[in-house]
Request: fold
Amino acid sequence: MNPPTPADAPRPLVFWEHRLYPGSLSRLARVRADLAADLAGFDPDLVDTVVLCASELFANGVKYTDSGRAEGGEVIRSLSLTAADTLLFSVSDSGGGGGVPAVPHGRTDDEWNEAEGRRGLLLIENLTRRWGHLRLAPWADLGTRVWAEFDVEPSGVPDGLRPYVFTR
Reply:
């Protein structure tokens, strides 16, 4: 049997419209507010968890890439309900960071206790089902999409969410 083609691949149940933000930490309040509005009706604990993780991922995109360092840098947010029990959040940055997100591992206990930063991905790792990243253009540093999956209780999905209609 042949592997599924992109046209046969499973589609999200609900796909919120992408949101584009200027690459500035001053936009973080807007990112949080938009996300909370988009997730209205979901379990409040889930919403708080997604907003917290989204804050970390947005801030990382702004701090470590051209999204926040270059004139006109931007961050794209996407959100979808990929299955009845799975919410997928992602941010895509403008590239220029030269690396990929990684949880730091080579620290001693004293170094962890003294560290001011670089703990956000540990938070992501512990609050999500799973997370990861992919280069938007593997041959160049044109941006990275960092995503996180969250468990959703299917009975807690609000009524009235409109599925995105894909046309082929």
Summary: Residues 102 and 160 are 37 Å apart (CA to CA). The mean pLDDT is 83. The longest strand covers residues 74-83. The chain has five helices and five strands.
